[in-house]
Amino acid sequence: MNQQANKDRPIGITMGCPASIGPELVVKLHLSPGIDGRMPIVVIGDRHVLEKISALLSLSVDIRDWHPGTEVAPGCLNVLNVSLLSRDILCFGSPTHETSVAMAAYVEKAIELCLAKELRAMVTCPISKSSLNQAGYDFPGHTELLARRTSSDNVAMMLTGDTLRVVPATIHCPLSEVVKNLNSKALVRQILLTEQALRTDFNLDPVRIAVAGLNPHAGEGGLFGNEEQTIIEPAVKEARRHCHPHSRVSGPYPPDTVFYKAKTGVYDAVIAMYHDQGLIPFKLLHFDDGVNVTLGLPIVRTSVDHGTAYDIAGQGIAGIESLMSAVRLADFMAENRQQHS
Hints:
Elements: H1 3-8, E1 11-14, H2 22-31, E2 41-45, H3 47-56, E3 63-65, E4 77-81, H4 97-115, E5 121-124, H5 129-134, H6 142-149, E6 156-160, E7 165-168, H7 178-181, H8 184-200, E8 208-212, H9 227-242, E9 248-253, H10 255-263, E10 269-272, H11 275-286, E11 291-295, E12 301-304, H12 321-340
Parallel strand pairs: 1-2, 1-5, 2-4, 3-4, 5-12, 7-10, 8-9, 8-10
Antiparallel strand pairs: 6-7, 6-11, 11-12
Helix pairs in contact: 2-3, 8-9
């Protein structure tokens, strides 16, 4: 497929949970002047839900049905209807079994269309673990579902913004279990996934990756812990052997300084050892416009970096900054990936 044909394929936005802020975000994004009209976008969701939120917020939106393989109607909110929920029953802020099943179906359809090359990338609005489980899925969230459906054995989560990119080596586990979940082999995989994504999806050359230490002062030579010496340093050395010759992987660095250096441009990304070590500095800088990217997939997937916000759903106060950033990044990544392929 040539580059122009790739650009003509739309980016698909999954609507997220119908009872969440997802439908509001989609409508507001469509009406925003911040999205380039030359970027074709379709919503994988439900026109009934979008009509209801538009009426509730007094927003004028021209919603058109879209089908794979057809052109996107310019100036309209193009929707592939995977569900058609009853407007009378749907209540924003109150998920049900029906909304949970629909929510999961949007993601499944978007993955299918990306694998079939009908979409050039997918952007996901928020879902909830409890709703996913209610729909019959035994996955913590998007990432695990995406990995299973695309047969991807090695995936990683990258949080990215204009000034900082972070990849946590361990994610959702208690702090007391971080050390037993850290190992050099897995850490090497995370580093290499990050390095490849920065080269192919972010078009960076050279790539500069910093690996954070686990302990204060990166262990201070074993004084405050030896995980740097036994786990992290061997992983850094092994990763260097497999990276592109231009890429630079270094560390472990003291966690209290490495994120500042990345923010100022010394590094392109930081591998954090656990969830809050990386996400606290990231959200301090990118609370509103951060984007969640899944590394290691054969398709491009970005996501908003926030939850379903059921408490404010349907109130018209949800901000679109993260979704707008996710769409722009998906477009950028898809174009870079096509060029590198």
